[in-house]
Fold each of these.
Amino acid sequence: MVTEGTEAVRLLLGMDPAWFAGVLFVMTYVVIMTDRLNRAIVSLMAAGLMIAAGLLNQEAALHGIDFNTIGLLTGMMIIVTITKKSGIFQYLAIWSAKKVDARPWGILVMLAVVTAVLSALLPNVTTVLMIAPVTLLITDALKVNPYPYLFAQLFAANIGGTATLIGDPPNIMIGTAANLTFNDFLVNLAPLMVVVFAATMLPIYLIWGRTLTSTPEQRQRVLDYREADAITDRRLLWQSLSVLAVVITGFALADVLHVEVATVAMFGASLLLLLDNLPRSPSEQNKVVEQTFAEIEWQTIFFFIGLFILVYGLGTTGLMEDVAHDLLELTGGNAKVTAISLLWASAVASAFVDNIPYVATMIPLIKNMAPSLGGPQALVPIWWSLSLGACLGGNGTLVGSSSNLIIASFAERTGRPIRFLPFLLMAFPLMLLSLLISTVYVYLRYL
């Protein structure tokens, strides 16, 4: 694909535009992997170099940004930031513990279930931020090792996040690129995640379940917690739950209503902002809104913006088409082989590198495979394979997803850090188990 931008690079730098974009992309990826620089800085610098070199102009760069993904993420972040002030997440954790009579293994299962369900309805990173601190409070009262609990929640967050469009950022990107709706993810992936979750909990029980014990006195400490005390603002609680119900319904009916999911999320965010601030004076409103916006993960938003521009610039050089052609040659142009290979390759890659830039790279590659495989409809199994591999692969190592690193930071504070290698030796086989189940599912249902 020859454009004015690619010709500008050829003239300015004296090099093939595809080489320039390819080298810039690889260097960006390497710097992100080293964790020496904030990844938002890295992606924005790379995007700026794409424009400065003339490969893209500002109009083209803006065209490359997926505002549906940006809007959905921002809207959900605002909703969760306001909702958490009500204390609902702490309430759910304490309620779950008491429902199983504060028995250590029962608490582990219940907290994992709560984490999985919330991660399907909210971004999984936010879920673990809310649940992990309460988990540590409960395990401290029971005098049990918090590691198995955090380990189970880590898996639950990634499994639950895989089940829906909004649970994990890679799914948001895939859904937007492939025109897959909230209901598509719910119907195609949620039932599989129930099976994967159950299959994952069985080995966890065999490893730790029978060793988790506590005295009646220790259990009574947990039973004495009053979950009602966790709710700090009942008015805000009902407002938040009502808006969340409207938003989830909007996601489910987005196709019927002919609106994008970003519109639904941003409408829900603005509605909850309004309800939260109506009783306040103008000066109070300014402070509250400022605090709410301050808690949005802006570095994630800007990381996405830079990444979208970088990948779009790479696509203008024609390099993506060439790589897609090479990949199809490796798989013989067979859709079945391509789907299964992509599922496993995505999982292994996502276990060691951030799955967001990986998925951003794979999306245009997969789109370029459509003509050779028989059109966009033939790509449907491949999209599901990419989603399953990228999201479940995050369970393979400690650096596989952002939620893993958040849980690891909480464990560090307790004086029982989660070490990379011991975690790898236990988590990677469990991740492979989930991939085996997913492979059977994809093959039988789609191939």
Amino acid sequence: MRFNLKGAFESILKSGEAPDQHGNDPVSMVLLLREPTFSPLDQLRSAAGRAFGTSFTGDKEAQHYVIQVVLFTVMKAGPHSLSFMNYRKPYGDDSRNFGKSLPKASQRQAWAEHTAWTAVDYVKGGADLELEYAVLAKLCNEMLNVNCVGLYVPGKRTFVPNDDWLREYLRSFAESRPLGLA
């Protein structure tokens, strides 16, 4: 099975942009990070294994893998393709003002603490949003750590600080649909 680099590239190009007024945001979840410390491939494979209940390899011929392809980190989880983008600056062009506009003090504080981010995009998303967000949520729940200050969902214009409620938020997404993984 071949990974679609063009689809991954198009999805990644939209990451970090201001919200799209036409609803064409990538199906994405963005982990906002205190420090620009990103998960290496073995940690992503481990998180994917916990999330999806199967082992992930570095072999792109396998049904479940995580690999580096040029500038991209890609994951194939059965029928689902995900791409990862790590960035060493705050999220978005107007990050500071956006953070100040958040309604809750806990959101504003968490947003202000981030200096980097990792976007997890569903490649060629948009066909079945509920399923696609369920896949992303299942994985992102396993990627959470103390470096993560919160999770932003561009397509839903939602930011949740990394607290007990974030895990429940991700669980509710993840349990909304069977993921179709063997």
Amino acid sequence: MGIHVCQKKDNSALTKEWNRLAAERRRQIESGEDLSFEHIIAPTAFKLLAVADTFKVLDIGCGTGEFTRRLAEMSDEVVAVELSQTSLGIATGVCRESENISFVNKPFEGINDLGPPATAAVAVMTLMTASNLEGLAVSASRLMVSGGFLVALFTHPCFWPRYWGYEKYPWFNYEDEIFIEAPFSISNRKTDLITTHIHRPLEAYIQIFRDAGFLVDRICEPLPEPRIENLYPAKWQFPRFIGIRWQKL
């Protein structure tokens, strides 16, 4: 099964996909097979977080908890929110020695109260899988202090379609929001587990969070240093991911 456009999916459908993938995702990260997580995504997220007050941090879409565990080392309190019950079950095991993490298994959009407002938030490889990005942005704004930073890493909407090869498919239009099904893959491994990501133009990300009360503070387009790039099966011709740091007004 290849890459193809699909109908818009709700949280229930997306959760089933991530439940099926959770164990494999944990294996990929734990083994170091996911080069991009270890050498690009996590380091860039922490670099962007360096200016933030990390007293209380929201981890929006914590997945199987590997980033969450590292985040807890620099925070007094982490609240990790995850839709996938299977992923969250794995995350609690991954983070079992971190006593400053609490887990919430529900859609982030629509959450009204998580105790005192968070001083920062992260969304690591979450935004391009969020069916209701507007709701997510509004919830983040509601749950954060004024002046707090939200850091997000996600697939680069300008270059990911080219990297995955669907840029020239007849159904692709850069300006549209498009739900796309494909077998989940990392550079060193392809699986037969289908997941959905949502293409949105970069402008949409900026405007949606602007409407929710966030201003862009920094944009980062990370590329691997030569030593790391040599670990990949192919050279990077362009950024595959983008990092954005927003500040809440």
Amino acid sequence: MSIPESQLQTWSHQGSVKQSADTYNTIKNVLEDAAAPYANKEFKVFLQGSYGNDTNIYADSDVDVVICLNSTYYADLSYLDESEKTNYNRDRIVASYEIAEFRKEVLDWLKKRFGSSVKSGKKAIAIAGNGNRRDVDVLPCAQHRRYNSYSSAATSRYNTGIVFWTTDGKEIINFPLQHMENCTSKHQSTSNRFKPNVRIIKNMRNEMIERSIISPKSAPSYYLEGMLWNVPNPKFVNSYGDTFANYWNWLDDCVAADLVCANTLHFLVRDGHDICWNMEDYTSTLTGLRKLWADW
């Protein structure tokens, strides 16, 4: 058997929108309050994750909010030649306010405003839901620049992302705004079929976990979005069932190591990288999808 089109149609629907939007606005207003201890710094608050991408499903709970420090940035010079690195170091000004202090001030401010519902995690700061407010993860981070060329500050070229360090000292670099922009572009280029199919595969992931086909943390939403982003646009057709067959067959035939994240700046599947999907989990997810489909 295969999964009925009616079930796929149900899974394609977006989860809570108004409650999530209200939650985001509440947290954003607090983070941008002029009384916050970091208010005189340059920063930006924005959504990331499923709600930011409009790919949230009914089972999603957390709203992911980023607060990015822009008055201080951290740089990746690995794409520069030696002369360009010399130019960069000539112009470099050492920051007096760094991400560790920023994170502490954000945490202290959130605790002042939300009390004991605020808990500091390995990566983000969790705020438990209350009433109509959903659970929230707030990620304090700083601007990251991946330099592609540097002759002077005015003529330099770089990709702008975010960087933060986990509580055990691991550096994490990502490019969430590029991810969101590219997913939106993909959605438009597929006649608005991309995001409903992402929601379907996320519901299929949850079903596979419930049936013990895959382990609970083997298929994060970010990687599922990236996997489908690689699939050629013509594979997204009017029927959800046909689209599933199209993208599963294409992914089964492609070279996994060639797949990139939706931001186009990281590979999707690589072992030993915190920002990449490991090959075992990628393979088990692809195999599990076919099993779920066949055993329905």
